User: What shape does this take?
Amino acid sequence: MTAPLDVLVVGAGPTGLALAAQLRTYGTTFRIVDRSLDRAYESRALAIQPRTLEALAPFGVSDELVARGNPAMQLRMHLRHRVVPMRLFDIGLTDTAYPFLLFLSQAETESVLAEHLRGQGVDVERGTELDRVERTGSTVTCWLRHGDGTEEAVEATYVVGCDGAHSTVRAQAGIGFEGYAYPQTFLLADLEVDGLEPGAVHTYMTGAGMLFFFPLGSPATWRMLAMRTPGTPDTEVDLRLLQEITDRYTSDRLELRDPVWMTDFRLHNRGAAHYRSGPFFLAGDAAHIHSPAGAQGMNTGIQDALNLGWKLALVRRGRAPEELLETYEAERALVGSSVRRFTDRAFTIGTSHNPVIRFARTRLAPRLAPLALRATGPRGRVFRTVSELGIHYRRSPATTAGPRTPRRGPRPGDRLPDLPRGLQARTAGPGWQLLLTGPPAIWSDERLAAALRGRDDLISVHRLGGQSPWPNAVHALLRPDGYLGYVAAGTHMEGLRDYLERWLPARRS
Ligand SMILES: Cc1cc2nc3c(=O)[nH]c(=O)nc-3n(C[C@H](O)[C@H](O)[C@H](O)COP(=O)(O)OP(=O)(O)OC[C@H]3O[C@@H](n4cnc5c(N)ncnc54)[C@H](O)[C@@H]3O)c2cc1C
Assistant: This one.
């Protein structure tokens, strides 16, 4: 009989691929299966946020993503009599190596992640569907159905549902998925458009709603996204309908042609009641779905995965307590709900027929947005939320402030900023990192050895001197996902020892 897998990853969209990449670095035993025979080629997400690029950088894929994408995209807001250009790069962020919204199709993002996995000897098992599960003692029996109709029973300690909005894992674990559908219908098409300036995102803000054209490149030059005119029947989507809507929403003479893909869809805003139930975990669209406003869905899913993978790996190896797994929901469900709220607000502003909101959308926003974007401060603040750089786990049970917390610099639960530039690369996982700042001589080897005893194989020590985001002497413990678990001013390490004893107990050998 074969030993149970540590983890079965169900679904090889961006969330499952990112989870597999992280599990691989820890030597966790896992399989990743996907019911579809091939990856998706029609692209959904079109943009990668700075925090996702930072989080993926330790796997060595972010440079490739940037090379394949467009980091210097311009947004052109079309008003009745003028066009307002706005930059989606150089956005006033100084503490990240990726101060831009990277335009890259989801198909390309998935292809880069899948190539990385192949290079690591991990194959996605396609044409393999999770059918049902059964809890058996300390493991789960997972019934997989293969393309040829055969069934296979696989034992796994944990099962992670990265299987999208209609998640089988979620249903099998009996986890609810509450929320609502928006009443509007949207039209989506990949096609050619004559009359549009190439290489920019075009938005048309009208009283009736919004129309977008995104530069896609492949399989067509443009991705069109528009709201179906309210009150019109849900007729089949064809070129004539798309042209009619374009003519209604813009006075520019745009000629649509050669559609490669056309569809319509309704949007939902829903969240899983729990992100964990016993051995079952949910990540990505299986845990939260919302409007594409703000380009958050795929990014949030990838970051769910990178919050969970190292926790599963360390608990499975017996190096961290079971309790660490509880912090996954504590940390990521808050992020999921805040993304649902924020995208809902953006969506309501973009589609509402309320006269006040409509006035704000069509008249005020276009005038104020360029002014706000010109001022570095507000521009940075807005972009910090959208870029997901502002995500923190300050209220997580796995976040602790030392007896003396530094007054300035990043706080416990924050991401480690890339300040000075290169700091993130220098301190990247897979393990934990102990950061020591101030004169190197103040950190006595004996005190360090005492704090790290029994877990020094999992913690790397960095004496940063003055090259750190804190102005004074600080010791800080960086988690494998780039967030600060513990931060204290000064050189007394009792608090750090307590933190480590709780979350990374010494090996008793
Ligand atoms: C029009 C549109 C535009 C969007 N734009 C953006 C954007 O700009 N930025 C952004 O961040 N997000 C965007 N999104 C959202 C983004 O596409 C999703 O959030 C993302 O695909 C979620 O990834 P995932 O891996 O969690 O799920 P999915 O991509 O849905 O992958 C789930 C996988 O699980 C597999 N699967 C399902 N059930 C089973 C089973 N029982 N057994 C085995 N395999 C199974 C499926 O075949 C699939 O491959 C957009 C979405 C849409 C619809």
Remarks:
- Residues 9 and 448 are 38 Å apart (CA to CA).
